[in-house]
Design a protein that fits this description.
single chain, 228 residues, Rossmann fold, 6-stranded mixed beta sheet
Amino acid sequence: MSGEASKTRAIRGPEFEKRFLGGRVIDIGCGPDLVVPHAEAFDLQHGDAQRIASQRPIGAYDAVHSSHCLEHMRDVPAALEQWWSLVRPGGYLVLVVPDEDLYEQGGWPSLFNSDHRATFRLQKAESWSPVSYDVLQLVSGLERAEIMSCELQHHGYEPGLRKLRITRVDRLLFRVQHFVAAALRKVGRSAAPLRTACERLFRLLGTPIDQTAGPALAQIQVVARKRP
């Protein structure tokens, strides 16, 4: 996904950051896009987020933030327990994950990110995904967790472009489109009109679109407080 933390930050506003992301903050899976400037970065070069409790102090953080990282974990519930253990009593967990219907769009393995190991839903009893978790249920089950907010964030997302199910043909079209686009990029600026025409053609053919590659959001955000 493209700059999800920055896009999310734009809709949160300063009051959110002041309330939930003050003090000592660790940002798990942040890449180069820290949630707030004073946050401590934790990404692949810093260690294994699956076992973070053995690498960072327990109960030492006012806030643990993670955006679009949990879906990459080998064991989602175990990783979340580790992240939660870093939160001090009275502190917060701010968790953002992709929504499976808006992002994966009914297809598994994930078409848009082959490293995804899990999908997430919000208060749905059933899922088409064989690796689906109800994220609110997951966070609510953490010891002493008090849910402060939980919301589906789909700002800028066009429902009419979403696939309800991704077929083998859809996967083939998606790969062909990316192959053609890569070839045309090598040609340079002179191929710009052809690139535009190809994009229109593939859209007419119903090729799946990753709207989060642009300005759209397709995610679930949960904020939980650890009761003293």
